[in-house]
Design a protein that fits this description.
The complex is a heterodimer of chains A (156) and B (719). With 156 residues, chain A is an alpha+beta fold. Chain A is 38% helix and 15% strand. The termini of chain A are far apart. Chain B is an alpha+beta fold and 719 residues long. Chain B folds into three domains: 159 residues, Aldehyde Oxidoreductase, domain 4, CATH 3.30.365.10; 148 residues, Aldehyde Oxidoreductase, domain 4, CATH 3.30.365.10; 326 residues, Aldehyde oxidase/xanthine dehydrogenase, molybdopterin binding domain (Aldehyde Oxidoreductase, domain 4, 2-Layer Sandwich). Chain B starts with a strand and ends in a 17-residue tail after the last helix. Classes of the chains: A alpha+beta (156), B alpha+beta (719).
């Protein structure tokens, strides 16, 4: 079945099983491998992408649910001021260790900041606790979100 | 020797007997040949004096790192060590991953492998010498060009500097430097002259990990590859009884179904088809000898081993005398379960067997052994096995095991296609290679002042040494990993005996971040706390009094206590616990600040760590590794347990194998002791002290001693 959507600003049409999770369309059909497979059950957040601006777990989003929608992945997140501020903060704080979860962390953080320019620690807890990091970078993630928020408050 | 793979003939893999025994054999190439190979054929205008670095005419320095990067920062630490002695301009330094080659053998292992918190320690001298040799050759080239004595020249930030302010950048010297003799004994810098090492430095691999371009094993791709998902034996020794190949093949995109010794693989155009195909197999297992494995049976096996723990790991004084002279005695039993590593990146490997050549792309901690093992799997020579080491989405010891590279290689050989084997999370969780369960029984005798005269510890645990495939249990019968941290704990107690009883309930055991220390620090540091409370002593002071001959242990205890405000009162409801442990050449003390709610919920608010790892390379990495190791140990202490029922693992994914999440994250402060001691490891030593520090804080909060991991909140409920 043919399914069309916009991925990082580009129109794409895929001939694939509509029930296949969006994750595998991104990683295998489009070779956008920055979005990671972690659990397959929306438990770890490694596969987080934006669907019409909302954070979704691509491992539990059937491809057909993305039809006609705008998808943003880690590869395209720098197109927005929020994405740029978050990536800059991540680099400044030097957040990653193994790095495997960081695409998903950044996508969740961007979605948080897009909706709430100055998130509190409680907001961060709420938005980020679905993203697992086994290396334990949580305190750096929190610091980077506050840093990105400050950057955005200054107008980027 | 743990791995047996039957002869990979196309159909009868499960039937034929011709067993091929694999060992962690090293590649046959000699170090000399490998060095030549690794440094061979650089472009003519590139200065590549050894396997570890090359410099191009633009002055750029590329450091080649032979260790695998799993978050522990080797892709930054190794370049810092080279760049320090090279006197490079850090802004011009980049890093790339080495191929598998004996040139990159880890001197502590004698093979190219990453684990045991060894990378910095093992390469401390040779890697710096590689940089120093290059620097000396650059200086010699400049001296020749200027017609001056090399001794009159110095170097700074990628420049050779002459007596009257003349300068030549390294880039301008590459051709001339390549013609200089390689110094046999390169001179290393004095510590006081370090400009790069010892300074907090940002990682070289962060940018790629932030913009989605970083390549992990699971991102490997070659044209025409098939993706494999396997139905894997649920327990060691299980064999498939029946499966429906037709149903799997009916899924669109499924190409092949192949049975191999570890299970049945479905190969498809992509992951989704392969997984659906695998699920459609409806495989039934003959579980074999462990069909009735249960957590109760595991426990019974440990008890059985404790009836006669005959291997003596430590004998000091005479415990009988110690016991007879004691005013009072304490006994306690402690337990820890099996644990999964649960790396963020599920196990995977892309393998391509072409004729007499094997190429793999994988995040593996054992690149060197992979050459030897996969050469036997594919029946080629080790030199024909090419290992492309990609980033590891977590390792924690799990990726030291060869199982996933073996299966991918077999599947490629049997299918004739490049095959990327991908584990689902559930496969990863159930695939064995667990941190061993362990049980210890302590008995201590105290004098009338509460000081310990006698300590007896009897441990039952499966043997990692026996399971490893490259180690053997020594004649003493003591598995060194089962007792590490316990047989060699630092407390001065006159009469001591530590005995080990091997218990093998069945599940495959393996190295897990900090290995035996992960449980033994919990055991000894909790029990010492029990003794302190029995003596009505402050747990810090009690420890210090027993550590007079161990200044580094005292140093980290005192530093952690000071920074945590040990002697200051805490807000109501908050309580502290302290623990200390040496592992991998590094001392770490941690103070945990904890509260326990009425319904038994444990909250860790803050952890203050002090670390003495000797001389440092990158203090930023040290702080982050300690913090990360605390998180890893907290996940295990609060939640981690792999249990068994009817021969199968009961956990499957992050809902029933929970790990610490951001909303539970304590504040963590890490304080590093300034030291001129030899460097210690840093990837693992932060893990051992956290469980006992929290257990001791829970005791301070509730008066209840939790002697089992994970902590049982039910036991803490207050009416």
């Amino acid at each position: 079945m043919s399914i069309s959507m916009t991925v990082n600003g580009k129109a794409v049409t895929l001939d694939a099983d509509p029930q296949m999770p969006l994750l595998w369309a991104l990683r295998e059909d489009l070779q956008l491998t920055g979005t990671k497979f972690g659990c397959g059950m929306a438990l770890c957040g490694a596969c987080t992408v934006h669907l019409d601006g909302q954070p979704v777990r691509a491992c539990q989003t059937p491809l057909e649910a993305a039809a006609g929608k705008k998808i943003t992945t880690i590869e395209g997140v720098a197109a927005t001021p929020t994405g740029r501020a978050v990536q800059k903060a991540w680099l400044k704080i030097d957040v990653p260790q193994c790095g495997y979860c960081q695409s998903g962390q950044i996508m969740s953080a961007c979605a948080l900041l897009a909706g709430k320019k100055k998130p509190t620690d409680a907001d961060i807890d709420g938005a980020m606790s679905g993203n697992v990091c086994r290396c334990g970078t949580y305190n750096q993630i929190r610091a980077a979100i506050h840093d990105a928020s400050a950057t955005l408050a200054k107008g980027g | 020797m743990g791995i047996t793979v039957e002869s990979p003939s196309r159909r009868g893999l499960l039937k034929t007997g011709a067993a091929l025994t694999l060992s962690f054999a090293l590649p046959l190439a000699t170090t000399r040949a490998a060095l030549a190979q690794a440094a061979s054929a650089p472009a003519s205008n590139t200065f590549a004096p050894n396997a570890w670095l090359r410099i191009t005419p633009d002055g750029k320095v590329t450091v080649v790192c032979g260790s695998a990067e799993m978050g522990q920062g080797v892709l930054t630490a190794i370049p810092m060590m080279v760049a320090e002695e090279l006197d490079a301009d850090w802004a011009l330094v980049s890093v790339e991953q080495a191929p598998a080659s004996a040139a990159y053998n880890n001197p502590m292992f004698g093979m190219q492998a990453t684990g045991g918190s060894t990378t910095v320690r093992a390469h401390w001298t040779p890697v710096r010498q590689a940089g120093a040799a290059a620097r000396q050759m650059l200086v010699a080239a400049a001296a020749q060009q200027w017609g001056v004595d090399a001794a009159s020249l110095r170097t700074e930030r990628g420049q050779v500097i002459g007596p009257n302010g003349r300068q030549l950048g390294y880039g301008a010297l590459v051709e001339a430097a390549a013609k200089q003799a390689v110094p046999e004994k390169p001179v290393l810098k004095d510590r006081k002259d370090f400009r790069i090492m010892g300074k907090p430095t940002r990682r070289l691999d962060s940018a790629a990990k932030i913009n989605g371009t970083a390549k992990f094993g699971i991102d490997a791709h070659v044209e025409g590859m098939l993706v494999a998902v396997m139905a894997r034996a649920p327990i060691a020794g299980a064999k498939p009884k029946a499966f429906d190949e037709g149903k799997a093949k009916a899924i669109k995109g499924v190409r092949k179904v192949i049975a191999i010794p570890s299970g049945v693989a479905v190969l498809a155009d992509g992951y989704w088809a392969a997984k659906q195909g695998r699920d459609a197999l409806g495989i039934e297992w003959d579980l074999g000898a462990h069909a009735d494995l249960s957590t109760d049976k595991v426990s019974a096996t440990l008890d059985e081993a404790l009836q006669n723990p005959s291997a003596i790991a430590r004998e000091t004084g005479n415990v009988k005398d110690g016991s007879a002279n004691s005013a009072r005695s304490l006994t306690a039993q402690y337990d820890v379960p099996y644990l999964a590593h649960a790396c963020m990146e599920p196990l995977n490997c892309l393998a391509w067997v072409r004729g007499d050549e094997v190429t793999i792309w994988a995040g593996t901690q054992s690149q060197g052994p992979a050459q030897g093992i996969l050469s036997q799997v594919a029946q080629v020579t080790p030199a024909k096995v090419k290992v492309n080491t990609l980033l590891l989405g977590g390792g924690f010891g799990r990726r030291f095991a060869p199982d996933f590279t073996i299966d991918a290689t077999l599947l490629s050989k049997l299918s004739g296609s490049p095959v990327k084997l991908v584990y689902t999370r559930e496969d990863d969780m159930a695939a064995g290679y667990y941190r061993p369960t362990s049980r210890v029984r302590f008995e201590a005798g105290l004098d009338d002042k509460g000081q310990p005269l006698m300590l007896r510890a009897e441990v039952a645990s499966p043997s990692i040494m026996a399971a490893s495939g490259f180690m053997k249990i020594p004649d003493s019968g003591v598995d060194a990993m089962a007792v590490e941290g316990l047989a060699d704990h630092p407390y001065e107690i006159p009469h001591q005996r530590v005995a080990y009883g091997r218990a093998e309930p069945g599940p495959q055991v393996w190295f897990w971040r900090s290995v035996g220390h992960s449980q033994n620090a919990f055991f000894i540091e909790s029990f010492i706390d029990e003794l302190a409370h029995a003596a009505k002593a402050d747990p810090l002071k009690y420890r210090l009094a027993l550590l007079e001959k161990h200044p580094r242990a005292r140093g980290v205890l005192l530093l952690a206590a000071e920074k945590a405000g040990w002697s200051r009162a805490l807000p109501k409801g908050r309580h502290r616990g302290i623990a200390v442990a040496e592992s991998f050449g590094t001392w770490v003390a941690e103070v945990a600040e904890v509260s326990v709610s009425k319904d038994g919920a444990i909250k860790v608010h803050r952890v203050t760590a002090a670390v003495d790892c000797g001389q440092t390379v990158n203090p930023q990495t040290i702080a982050r590794q300690i913090e990360g190791a605390v998180v890893y140990g907290l996940s295990a202490a609060l939640y981690g347990r792999i249990t068994f029922k009817d021969g199968k693992v009961e956990q499957s994914n992050f809902h029933d194998y929970p790990v610490l999440r951001l909303n539970e994250m304590p504040k963590v402060d890490v304080h590093i002791v300034q030291s001129s001691e030899a460097p210690g490891g840093i990837g693992e030593p932060g893990t051992p002290p956290i469980a006992p520090a929290v257990a001791n804080a829970i005791f301070a909060a509730t008066g209840k001693r939790l002697r089992q991991l994970p902590f049982d909140g039910e036991a803490l409920k207050r009416a």
